[in-house]
Predict the structure.
Amino acid sequence: MTGIDYAEEPVDAARAAFKQTTKKISQCLVRRDATANFSVVLRLYHGWRKGYEASANLRAIRQVVAETDFSTTSDKPNVAYSSNVAFGDCLLSALPKRMHQGTGIHLPNTLRDRGDQGHEEKMVDTALASDLVVSAYRDPDEWVLLVAEDDDLIPPLFTAESIINPKISKALLLCKRRRGNNLLLLDGLDAS
């Protein structure tokens, strides 16, 4: 995404990805409604943990979040970012007994070693899908903006779109790739 080797420079890669993502979100929101004021709350999904141990990427993005001046994150005057950044290994809705006490998360081991095949993310898409639907039910008057490339996340976005209040909120998909020959009906959702 950034051209920076995350294995060699995880903090620099996280910083660049965070900056690029927030810039794209701001641009997208202003394109959709230049007159509205937006307060953006970020939830970040990734293979954050090997077992219970924080991955290098989690440590890096935590450092980036801690050093970020959120009052200057957006160059758009009507887009503000909350400094309360959440991570997808702690679900929006799960029973308290499912939370691991030592880490405060529901989903350990979202990054798994596959030997010669490197690492694999597990439960990340399903956590995002679950939270997307829960968020739409909890806050039907809020916009939902999904930044993702994976078509597996389109069904929960369709579901969220059907739940939110269409008079005052929107469900949007922001991604880098063009879906020119895609059979999915994304009119009104694709904000790329």
Observations:
- The chain is about 30% helix and 15% strand.
- The longest helix spans residues 10-32.
- Strands lie at 38-40, 43-44, 49-50, 53-54, 79-81, 86-87, 111-113, 119-121, 144-147, 171-174.
- The two ends are 15 Å apart (CA to CA).
